[in-house]
Amino acid sequence: MAERDRFRHLLALRPENAAAKLADSPVCLLNSHHILQALKDRECIVMAANTRIKHVIPGIMRAAKDTDAVVSFQLAKSESDLSGGYTGWVPESYFQSILEYADRVGYFLPFFIHGDHITIKNTSEAEINTARELIVAQLDAGYTSFCVDASFNPLADNIRITAELAKPIKDASLGLEVEVGEIKSAGLEGGEITTVEEAVEFITGLEQRGIHPDLLAINNGSKHGNYLEGEEISIDLERTGEIYQAIKPRVVGIAQHGITGTPLHIVGKFAEYGIRKGNVGTQWQNIAHKELPPELMARMKGWAQENNKDVKMASKPFRAEIDGVDEDCKRRIEERSYQEAANFIKAFRSEGTASMVAEALKGGGSSP
Question: What is the pTM of this model?
């Protein structure tokens, strides 16, 4: 059976906000809630790719096709907001680019588009409104999954702010990820590891306010970005498993952030500890940067040094040049992304998950 026909019955489950954008398209953009519910009893992880540079996208899609895997495409608030974040993407342009690549690649497997790390770093109304406006824009663009991250705040404020901002997401019956325990960037000291008690109190507090998340991101020792040379990778999987067992009765899985640089033999154990979504972000940037023209990369690094910024911040000022590299460069980035995505999908035990979702949702999606 052709791939397009194999997943055709799932098209009726596309969320209203996405279906309105897709019209007669056969692209199978689903609600992450339905996908995660379909896979909740399996020790497998959905790979979520922060694709800051667009040339990696077709390689990831091809790998998903060849491994029959569900994946997610996502950008964080810092990467893509109403002004373009540090990458130049806004929600509408990112959504449209994903669809264009899906059409080009013939990518008809179930997947979701996720608003990653919609951060709220303090309790001011201005900060909360910025996140609220981004959520509205992502809903309008067609996103089908969201991460509300108020973990920078004390627990009581985190619960209050998360519940407030998550309401329109849950009213639309879309997938929701939340976070307790701030996850640090590589090269910086991390905060305290999330405790079981904190995780349970957080989820309980949200449920008391009518919010039932699908995923919980925690601080288990991982870090965002590239690890510095010699920096220790220390992920507490035992604590992760304890938290998962405590929240599993609420049908909440663990979202793992900060995977770039983690050896695959460690990544291969993640699913055993309740991790059900794995964010891979900086890895795709690293691949693209390695294959971009040396002269372009030299200017990007020079700009970063002059402005005392990480080179990732050069994505926006050099966006037109990055997007306009020659076809051979694009092909190299795509092929390296394909191989890396296939490696992660296998380590995540995610092979075959697209067919699993299709089978589980034959009778229609579950309600939140």
Answer: 0.94
